[in-house]
Amino acid sequence: MVTTPESSVQALARYEPVIGLEVHVQLLTATKIFCSCSTKFGDPPNTNVCPVCLGWPGALPVLNRKAVEYATLAAMALNCRINEQSIFARKNYFYPDLPKGYQISQYDKPLAEHGYIEIPGNGGRKKIGITRVHLEEDAGKSLHEGFADSRDSTYLDLNRCGVPLIEIVSEPDIATPGEAFDYLTRLKEIILYTGVSDCNMEEGSLRCDANVSVRPKGQEKFGTKTEVKNVNSFRFIKQALEYEIERQVELIQSGGRVEQETRLFNAAEGKTYGMRSKEHAHDYRYFPEPDLLPLVVDEKWEEAVRRQIPELPEARRARMVSEYGITAYDAGVLTASRALADQFEEAARAAKNPKRVANLVQGELMGRLKSKGLEIEQSPISMKGVAFSADLVEAGTISGKIVKDLYDLAFERGQDFPAIYEKEKPQQITDTGAIEKIIDEILAANPKQVEQYRAGKTTVKGFFVGQVMKASKGQANPQMVNELLDKKLGS
Ligand code: ADP
Ligand code: MG
Ligand code: ZN
User: 18, 131, 424, 477: which could form a disulfide with 169 (CB 3.0–4.6 Å)?
Assistant: First the structure.
């Protein structure tokens, strides 16, 4: 009997990935975590430094209260339990961008533990556990220049030394690269809503290390993991994981063994490369930081921070769907940032009829944005503009047809709705005689429908309104059309 060799697709299907993510988020404090140097991004190199963040002998760290507050707020929004007492620890290693020779972090007693994030999954929602959220300081930056020739040099910018970070470590609950993408998307959204970080990946305010292993389906024991570092977009993390899963399965299939190691992702090639293996793994020799007292977040402080948790994206979406009758998809778009959701809700509530604002967003704005390839933040029509148009429709001043035309013009000219309206204010037909004339024509041309209406089928009125509006090119005052139709049909 001849057996054909298993295809790589079949092999892949026999394994399941296990993924855990470590995410670093920079906190938006004005000053560093243990000194009063500025955290400002982009300042000239080595201008925001002092003896504390440079690790000069004898300099002592003083904990920034705001950093603790922000870290606690983020941890709570991620459903973590806050430890009343946590301990700072020294993580010792040598690197040129770490002048102290150690990083102050937290180790066996972190600020917060046992949280979770919900992502879509299993036909509903899936909880991804968060092992811990801890506080730590960032290191400086090395800039490698001129490595193409002999004048190669490395420059050090120590401005980032001591900038406050939180590290958010997930449980190995993530089962696919797609779930990793969803987890990160949700994580970023939640952090953005809390306002404790700008999560700007280009500036390194959010960085992710992805740990991944594979195991034969049904096996309980985890396989050996590799860690992919320095990936600077969620899409690339997904790609790196996909590549890494295939590489590991192929390696095992061909009789090899996965080495526990750190790997780098090359985005141009879509491949990962080994960087350092376990033999060279760091032994950080953690020990409690002798210059800092245990961090105590007492009940009173915890309560004060808890009161600052804003309504989070998931809850806000659900509420907006029921309050404004919009689709889940549109609620997702409108809550993409807290500022946008605030703008929408402010406009909707100020308008005469909030649902009409939602309808216009859904019916007129979204489609136009999509066809122009614009994000909602780039929309020429602001949420205030939408509310303005909604009120005009509500009052019967303009018809639905004219709204469409004005939206088209706004997009064509890149101007907001009120400006377009002022300029193009449609010539409305408000002359009773003129409208009556159109109505008479419509009624005369549709005797069957008139008969139906008089026989009690009053819904036919909508048909007449539509015909009159069409005949008037959308310019007849809708309210007058309604009233005059009632008069003519009722008699
Ligand atoms: P390390 O000590 O190597 O940093 P940790 O236990 O701290 O490992 O875990 C780091 C991250 O790796 C966590 O997000 C965790 O969920 C994940 N992880 C741990 N073991 C595995 C594994 N076998 N496969 C995939 N991810 C794992
Ligand atoms: Mg770790
Ligand atoms: Zn400093």
Answer: 131
Neighbours of 124 (CB within 10 A): 7
pLDDT for 3 beyond 60: no
Domain boundaries, the chain: 6-301, 313-424, 432-490
Ligand 1 atom with the smallest distance to the CA of 223 is: 23
| Cβ of 16 less than 6 Å from ligand 1 | no
Task: State the distance from the centre of ligand 1 to the C-alpha of 181, rounded, in angstroms.
Answer: 17
Which single residue is written with the structure tokens 């955290």? 39
The C-alpha atoms of residue 282 and residue 261 are separated, in whole angstroms, by 11
Burial 145-166 (b: 16+ CB within 10 A, else e): eeeeeeeeeeeebbbbbbbbbb
**Quick one: fold of 432-490?**
Arc Repressor Mutant, subunit A (1.10.10)
Strand partners, 487: none
Evaluate whether 237 touches 206 at the Cβ level (below 8 Å). no
Distance from Cα 170 to the centre of ligand 1, integer Å? 8
Whole-angstrom Cα distance, residue 147 to residue 136? 32
Joined tokens for residue 139: 């290191």
Q: Tens digits of per-residue pLDDT, 153-201? A: 889 999 999 999 999 999 999 999 999 999 999 999 999 999 999 999 9
> Per residue in 69-100, pLDDT tens?
999 999 999 999 999 999 999 999 999 999 99
